[in-house]
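thread: overnight batch results

M.L. [08:02]
morning all. the overnight job finished for the chain we discussed friday. pasting input first so we're all looking at the same thing
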Amino acid sequence: MESLLDVKQLTNYINGEWEEAKGDFAQVKNPATGETIVEVPLSTADAVDQAAAAAEIAQKEWALVPAPQRAEVLYRVGTIMKERKEKLSKLLTMENGKVLEEARGEVQEGIDMAFYMAGEGRRLFGQTTPAELKNKFAMSVRAPIGVVGIITPWNFPIAIATWKSFPAIVSGNAVIWKPATETPIMAYELAKIYEEAGLPKGVLNVVFGSGATVGDAMVHHDTIRVISFTGSNETGRNIAADCGRQLKKVSLEMGGKNAVIVMDDADLNLAVEGILWSAFGTSGQRCTACSRVIVHESVKETLEERLLVEMEKLTIGDGLDAVNKVGPIINDAGIEKIKKYIEIGKDEGAKLLAGGNQMTDGDFAKGHYFAPTLFTDVTPEMRIGQEEIFGPVVSLIPVKSFEEAIEVNNGVEYGLSSSIFTRDVNRVFQAQRDLDTGIVYVNAGTTGAEIHLPFGGTKGTGNGHRDSGVQALDVFTEWKAVYVDYSGKLQRAQIDVE
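M.L. [08:03]
and the structure it wrote out:
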């Protein structure tokens, strides 16, 4: 452990300095073993004030740096991340619990995002358009907003931070970042990488602490003009309300109740692979995780049998051991929430086919493990078919037709990700049109988004903004219309038109 992490107590990173935190600290524990890895500060609102003051000054200078030069910093960040990929991946597994293979994938996502958003330094495209008057030029350009606040979750502690901070920084903004207290190590390591890459002091600031204190202070701080949040639906709604009263820009990416649709003509072996990966990868702790399987009644029994066989083969344990494919749940609170939904499912009349229990024998007792779980004969209105569980729990919902499958998929409050397995090209195109989700997969599971496309969803999943892709720039820039009249006289639009 000591060879990977060079400190025992983290400190805030403000104005290019590692500021000694004041007040209390929380222990960061490895969810696989229960071992304390490091201590993280529980900062006060004063730290947010300090970071905001530094960011406001730094942003004014940073915005004047040509965007291609700003991009050079991101190219260096991506290069350093690539060099340290294995170290970052192991640290990520230690603090988050996801298996090392997945941790490497998450770090790679950050690397990809660095190079992609660095490319935007030579684009950041606006538009030119004909003016309606003679000797007049019209165009639109992107302008930075100023100081932005990003609040990131524990389940993707580095990837989501790169989705938010990279477009913000290449656009000419300064950033204040509050990472989750469960997984602060990736923030510490990424801040060090930014520093090494030559990002000017104050352009990135990291303030550790709770959402109730640090997050709330960021949301209500006058200097911070954008909040980009990924987390729970309840918290997101509160942030949106608070930001709305301040006319502050807010981007929300919240929950999902994602479904894989398996039609009667599907390749069932491929469907089983897709379900297993998207349901039990990250132990179901993804906002895009498969939580429902909407299956045509004619193949339901066969699919159940094959899922049960393959679930038995899943290896569970510490993610640093390459033999394991499913890691732990993040903490006790996560375990208790899953347990609650298991009982809810039973009470509602769903049939429990596998799992449904916390794993506490042997080495499992040291961490937080829950057995991969499969319910069947779930009806669409059951709570386990409607509410986000955030664990390795899948509900099979039988349907009689393609049309019913689409209706069931769309009949939840969320709209993040959906998937359909079918060989019928007509159904494929109908599904991608009619599935009310921000992401649609065909003959694949519900996870696996790529960084050059927009990430986000409809309905209760968010508020219309997107992380990732070129669309992420819209969160961190304002559109400015520019008119240049070179006629030498006053020309009045809509009036002096011949």
